[in-house]
Every structure is written in C-alpha cells, then in structure tokens.
Amino acid sequence: MESLQKRFVALGETLGERIIGQPKLIERLLIALLADGHMLVEGAPGLAKTRAIRLLAEYVQGDFHRIQFTPDLLPADLTGTEVYRPQDGSFAFHKGPLFNNLILADEVNRAPAKVQSALLEAMAERQITIGHTTYPMSEPFLVMATQNPIEQEGTYPLPEAQLDRFLLHVTIDYPELEAERKILQLARAEAQNNTPPAATQTPVEEISRGELLGARREVLGLYLAPNLEEYLVQLIMATREPMAYGEDIAAWIQYGASPRATIALDRCARARAWLRERDYVTPEDIQNLAYDVLRHRILLTYEAQAQGISCDHLIRELLARVPLP
Asked: CA-to-CA distance for 103 and 114, rounded, in angstroms?
C-alpha cells in the first residue's frame, strides 16, 4: 500500500493541477490539515480561495460548507438553534453549518464581533454549547476564513487576541503570466465539458479520517534536532525581548507572539518537512513558515506604523538577526 506521505504529496500535486498559480495556498491548506489548525487567508477576490478548500474536501472524508459573513449574521446562523416542537412541548436542537468538517468563512471581517466570537470559540474549543448542552465538533474540523484586503468599508477587523486562534495567516497574490494562460485554458475546458481536462484527472484515492489521524501522528513524530528547537524558541522569544537584537526592533514591537506561536511554528515546520518527504526538520522549514505563523501574532507600535514598517519587514529582520544553529 502506498505510504500516507506519498498519498498526501500526490494530493498536493493533484490540487496544483486544478488550482493553478497558487502553490503556496495549496501547501498551507495541507499543512493546516496535518497540523490540526485553522487558517486566515488574505487576498484579492478571484484567487481560487473557495475553489481550493472545496476541492480539498473532495479528497478527504468530510463535509464542506461555505458561510458568507454579512453584517446581519447572527451567532445562531453558525451554531444552530433550538426549535420548539408544539406536538410534545419539547425543544429540538438543529445543528448549524459549523457542524461540518471543512468550513469556508468567507469575508469573516464583515460580520460583527458576536458572530466572530461564536466562530472562534468553536475553532478553539472544538465544541459548541447551546443552553445546558455541549456538542462536540466532528473530526477533522478545519476553518479557512478569508479577508478582502481591498475593501475595508463596513468591516469589523478581528481583534489581535482572536487572530491568535488561527494557526496561519496566509497572504496570496495574483498568479504569474504563464499561470494566467493555464487558468484560462482550464476554465474554458471545464465550461465546455463540465469536467476538468483529462490531463488534470490524476487519480487520487480518498483519504479517510483514520488515515488523516495517522498522518498527523507521523508528522508529530518527525525529528527536530535540539539545536533547531532552541532556534525556534529563540525566534519567538525575540518578539518578546527584542532589545537583544537591536533598539530599532525593540521600538517596533508593542506585543510579541504568544506560546501558541511556538506550538504552531513547531507543528507547521514538521508538516512542511513531511510533505517534502523528509523525516527531519530543517532551518528553512522554520524560516519559510515564520511569516505565516507570526504576522498576525505581533502587534506593532504606532512608531513602526508611522515609519511604514510592516509585520513581514519585522519578521525578515528577526530572521536575519537571530543566529542560526
């Protein structure tokens, strides 16, 4: 039987044939699935965010549901509600769309804070409480929330404490010229045949929930050298005690990353190494994921914002100054 590692690699290749020009988004989705976390994706409309998670749901045993976040959304629209049954005078709980395995929370920053809180509570606690009854979420449970960076009118930005609940904050950009040509060809072929072209129909066997749990155990068992683990911890500590790496960096950071960042960077680096068919983590795995793990967990000072310093610029400086083992 083909190893789980090779099957996930083949899954990534298949998704890459049907989601053209977004290799980073595909890899981060698989990493979030293997690391058992959620991700926030920021990018312009039309960059295949919805398509990516919908196609992923086709290859794992789980249900997919898309929720369009709007200003008039209520928490019960996500979690479900108790419905009165007049025939026997009882209440029956009708589960909401959150009781699916893969969730797309589209334009999450368009809903008010109460709705965002209901979503993030389910993400963090993996359960929903209605009245006196608590309902556990089924596994796997992955939320991919999206934000539109272009239009901010009428939005409710996620507070930093709530952003910390996301494993990754991924930013994506437009595809390159050759990828744009392939997108056009793929869209035309799908419109004509109602199916992807034969060249993209790479057979991939569906991954069961048991196999996914087995893959997660393999990822956690990957070798991380003690000196690399120390490097990872020092990288996180540099966001909290930045004076050791320069007065300029210290002036830019108001609050550093939480312990969730340490755990997230460890699990994500292992998942990336596993997807690249290695049984050990390299410094490049840690550095590659540092941006997506840290950019939503570091709060910049007003001085940094006034100077036009972004979180990505700050992380780039930290990676340059924290010594490699």
From this structure: 18
Question: Is 22 in a helix, a strand, or coil?
Answer: coil
* 321 closest CA partner among 257, 225, 250, 258: 250
Chain centroid to CA 315: how far? 19
Listed residue (188, 201, 175) closest to 21, CA to CA: 175
As a whole number of angstroms, the distance between CA 70 and CA 282 comes to 42
- Tens-place pLDDT, residues 209-251: 899 999 999 999 999 999 999 999 999 999 999 999 999 999 9
What is the CATH class of 4-193?
A: alpha beta
The answer to whether domain 222-321 has CATH 2.60.40.10 is no
Phi, psi (deg, nearest 5) at residue 10: -65, -35
Question: Looking at the chain, which residues constitute the CATH 3.40.50.300 domain(s)?
Answer: 4-193
User: Cβ distance 175 to 183 under 8 Å?
Assistant: yes
Phi and psi at 12, nearest 5°, equal -60, -40
Burial class (CB in 10 A: 0-12, 13-18, 19+), 195: exposed
* pTM for this prediction: 0.91
Provide the phi-psi class of 126: left if phi over 0, else alpha when psi is between -120 and 50, else beta. Answer: left
Q: List, in sequence order, the alpha helices (H) in the chain.
A: 4-18, 23-34, 49-59, 76-79, 113-125, 160-163, 177-193, 209-220, 226-240, 247-252, 259-275, 283-294, 302-306, 311-321
Instruction: Check whether 201 has a pLDDT greater than 60.
Output: no
Every domain range in the chain assigned CATH 1.10.8.80 = 222-321
CA 212, chain centre distance (Å): 17
Measured distance CA(208)–CA(190) in Å, rounded: 27
